[in-house]
From TrEMBL:
It comes from the Eukaryota. It comes from Hibiscus sabdariffa (roselle). Pfam families: RVT_3 (PF13456). Residues 44-125 form the RNase H type-1 domain. This is RNase H type-1 domain-containing protein. Signal peptide: none annotated. InterPro entries: RNase_H-like_dom_plant, RNase_H-like_EbsB-rel, RNaseH-like_sf, RNaseH_domain, RNaseH_sf.
Amino acid sequence: MDSVRLMASSHAIPMSERWSSPSTRIVKVNFDASLIRLHHLLFSGMIIRDNEGEVLVAGCFSHSHVLDPFAAEALACHKALALAHDLSFKRIIVEEDSLWVIKKVETFSKDRSLIGMLIKDIKRKLKGHYSLLPIS
């Protein structure tokens, strides 16, 4: 699965088809990353909603020196988890569109890639409080 999702449609998708609500007292974090490879620049946006779809917080960030789309998605995931943690959300679901990041986080073996420490920190942040789900 590609880490960059392209939207070809010019019309909006109804909210009921593109976002499903979490259980009561759980918030859902959605985010996406975009990488300009030539300049190694990452741009990411995130949104945290409650179980009724009400936006609790939204944000964006940029980061330089990001070398590949995998690192971009992992860094965006890390930033989204850090935001949820900083805002003291205790029970969250993180929706991720990069199957690669999900597999890296779910594996029990030590990640020896260039972003291994970032994956390790994502695992630490997820432990006990959060769920990481693929976007269907």
